[in-house]
Automatic annotation (TrEMBL):
It is an enzyme of class 3 (hydrolase). It comes from Dactylosporangium maewongense. This is Neutral metalloproteinase. Belongs to the peptidase M4 family. The keyword Hydrolase applies. Residues 160-337 form the Peptidase M4 C-terminal domain. Residues 8-154 form the Peptidase M4 domain.
Amino acid sequence: DEVETIAGTGNSLYSGKVSIDAQRFGTTFRLTDTTRGRGTVCDMAHQEDENGSCKLFTDADNTWGTGTNDDPASAAVDAAYGAATTYDYFKTVHGRRGINNNGRGVPSRVHFGDEYVNAFWDKGRMTYGDGRGNAHPLVQLDIAGHEMSHGITEKSVSGDLTYTGESGGLNEATSDIFGNMVEFYAANPADPGDYLIGEKIDIFGNGTPLRYMFDPALDGRSHSCWSAETPNVDPHLSSGVGNHFYFNLAEGTGKTAFGTSPICGKAGAVTGIGRAKAEKIWYRALDVYFISNTSYVSAENPGNTARAYTLQAAADLYGSCGAEYKAVQLAWTAVNVAG
Ligand code: ASN
Ligand code: ZN
Ligand code: CA
């Protein structure tokens, strides 16, 4: 039987009608993306076991899902679209061909567990739960980009960015940053780019997003400004410092189209340099300079900080006398990470 890639139609939960690349095998279509290194989407059917079976989604007419949870394939469409869009983002914007930079795709598992309110990256694959109550399935594009970016971080930083303390915060911030840069890259009117994480999931049941990058403390827990407590909190909270820095660098402080970014302490205002430059600076810092224990602030080794490495990346890309380098300095200072 002939096998070929055919663009199918997907009716997603969050991104409207999207094109997804499926594979035809005889008279059946499979959710295997042969144009991006054979990434797959499979159905955990509410099981959680580590090595239990996950059944590859198949379809008879290459029109996948209905856009509602009545059809288990709808969440699979979001996962396929998320993996494909994230793959395309890193290839187009950063010249990286997949997580391992070898052109290989990765598997996505959907419908993991029973009312599981999370998504995660482990063992070289993405896994998504269905949520519970008001919390909808955790397959929104920025979440897919977040989880896949954990794989990018794992393969870019030798030994991974350690998932505790401030390096854990940088690991989480990297995933939030690229998750939303993927959302902007997609430019999908059904899910426009923003600096909120999981804004369509309603994870708290009150309409608020999981996280806010322009002022992370709006969630009542995350750190918008670095403090001596930052190394002691969960990576999903210390990520606030990196997320807020990134927002300042890309969009500036004060009132913006995406939210109001407060300035920490007595720092000066920042004028953003735009996402196209900010994302290249963060990616280069991650890929070329970050090591496993890089932190926001380090008394012992001031050279091994995100501030030092993003400045180095900015100097490499745009020179050390330009507005970009200056903006990196100001954007860190505005989150209370001084030079
Ligand atoms: N969704 C979470 C994350 O990707 C899962 C976790 O806490 N590891 O960060
Ligand atoms: Zn994460
Ligand atoms: Ca978002």
